[in-house]
Design a protein that fits this description.
about 270 residues, alpha+beta, Arc Repressor Mutant, subunit A, 7-stranded mixed sheet, 5-stranded antiparallel sheet, 9 helices, about 35% helix, RmlC_Cupin_sf, transcription regulation
Length: about 270
């Protein structure tokens, strides 16, 4: 398989659904991809995207996921999804026939990546398109499936509402997360009662207003930190009055400070 370094080089891409093999893996290594947006699309095969360097976000049927370095996202076959990325991007993209594994996740999820899973994907990315399915290759595929099925789910998911009134509020909050208006202010802005807004948010996202907004901050913080932003600038851009208060929120949500969380996802950093 070629390692893709230029997304404009169409000759490097073959539709994975058309390749008659149970697993198809592509590698990607791009120092500067600019701003990439892949509109809603779907594949028959399930898809796991592992990010080694950079970060991408993926919206899948009512949810937004952010994938930082050394993490991955699993997208079941047939799921409509859109992908955004910017800056440098390096990683692997594997497409898996749905008949290959009953233990694979049924829904979209962000997952952590073990060293073994990373190495298996790297090895599979160097197989030819029509690799021999017998012998060592069959064992490689089998172990790769087991590692994907056993991957630990990460809480980098932001439920996205479908109600048009609520989606307008969400879009405004994502565009200006530092504008930390109250529930009352957002309800008035949307022309509905506070009780109606609370009911809508709970019904559409399964979260309270405060919990959803905190998760929005977590998702955006991971995305910006992965792109190289400082902890101080992220705290300010999210509207926190102080960096320590942002760090406390981040640690409670993900179990580690922003600095340690990102250091664990960048080779060579302490």
């Amino acid at each position: 398989m070629p390692i893709i370094s230029d997304l404009t080089a169409k000759e490097d891409w073959i539709e994975p659904d058309e390749i008659p093999r149970p697993i198809v893996v592509f590698g990607a290594m791009m120092d500067e991809v600019g701003d990439i947006e892949l509109d809603l699309h779907q594949h028959r095969k399930g898809q796991i995207i592992l990010v080694q360097r950079g970060a991408l976000s993926c919206e899948v049927e009512g949810g937004l996921w952010v994938v930082p370095p050394r993490s991955a996202i699993w997208i079941p076959g047939g799921a409509l999804h859109a992908i955004k990325a910017s800056g440098a991007l390096e990683g692997y993209n594997a497409f898996i026939d749905p008949q290959m594994g009953a233990d694979l996740p049924r829904t979209c999820c962000a997952v952590s990546v073990t060293p073994l899973l990373r190495e298996l994907l790297a090895r599979a990315a160097h197989l030819p398109y029509l690799y021999d399915e017998a012998g060592p290759n069959s064992r490689l595929v089998s172990v790769l499936l087991d590692e994907i099925a056993a991957a630990q789910v990460e809480d980098l998911h932001l439920p996205m509402p479908s109600d048009p009134r609520l989606r307008r509020i969400v879009d405004e909050m994502m565009a200006a997360p530092a504008a930390r208006g109250s529930l009352t202010a957002w309800a008035k802005h949307a022309g509905m009662s506070e009780r109606t807004l609370m009911r809508l948010i709970d019904r559409e996202t399964g979260m309270s207003f405060g919990r959803w907004r905190q998760q929005l901050c977590v998702v955006l913080a991971v995305k910006w930190l992965a792109a190289g932003a400082s902890i101080q600038s992220v705290a300010a851009d999210l509207g926190y009055e102080s960096t320590p208060s942002f760090v406390t929120m981040f640690r409670k949500a993900l179990g580690a400070s922003p600095g340690r969380y990102m250091a664990e996802r960048h080779p060579g950093r302490a």
